[in-house]
Amino acid sequence: MNSMNTNYSIRDEIRDFWSERAATFDQSVGHEIFSEAERKGWQRLIRKHLGEGEGRAALDLACGTAVISHLMNDVGFKVTGLDWSDAMLAQARAKAKKRGTDIRFVSGDAENTMEPKDSYDVITNRHLVWTLVDPASAFKEWFSVLKPGGKVLILDGNMGKETWVKGLQKLWTKVTGKPPASHMSPEMMARHQKIRSRVHFSSQMPAEAVVDLLRHAGFTDIVVDRKLADIHWAQARKMPFLRGLERMVQERFAICARKPG
């Protein structure tokens, strides 16, 4: 990380952080899918809000290693995965080649995609919104890239909200001197917290705040779906006990919104 370079922005820091995580990203539950039950849960959620793909054009923003891109491909969408981490895109392309899928991958910024206006039927993203420096501008960009009548599906959560399980984890650390199991090293956790302190949603990100920004960007028919228990249960079963318990009580949600047309 080049902290001496004054041109090194928070966006550069976010890109570099995820690039460094690319090699091991798919090893974590909640990133890659480790059970057929979880896969079916995601596909159920996608079909519920977006329907069958039927060859419609989908843009998966901050696609990472293409987990959501492949789920969208599985239900029949013609998928473009966009990410500005070359390391993540290398993993995504290797996975697509191994699975024999025709997903298109492009390098780009989710806040300024450079994709043609009115060109996609749907936009998807997972765990992206909390990283946005300027979500209001990003949502306007997504609105412009969607075709009239197109939909955006946001998969995210209010990760900054304290839960009773987090309190239990802190007590566990205090009593045993051992931090709870994590997929990140202490150094990476510190970098993660430093980034989080400087993005728009630096503390909590309630669904209602995301909905307000979507509405201001022009989206209508906004639906907040918190019925994700099948996905979370499938993930929790593959996690250490306290992490799995935390997954079950976290405030996670899907938000679907439509561009009028």
Automatic annotation (TrEMBL):
Segments forming domain Methyltransferase type: 59-154
InterPro entries recorded: Methyltransf_11, Methyltransf_Superfamily, SAM-dependent_MTases_sf
Superkingdom of this protein's organism: Bacteria
Keywords recorded for this protein, A-Z: Ubiquinone
Signal peptide feature range: none
Keyword 4Fe-4S in record: no
Cited Gene3D superfamilies: Vaccinia Virus protein VP39
Keyword Zinc-finger: no
Protein name according to UniProt: Ubiquinone/menaquinone biosynthesis C-methylase UbiE
PANTHER family (UniProt xref): METHYLTRANSFERASE, METHYLTRANSFERASE DOMAIN-CONTAINING PROTEIN
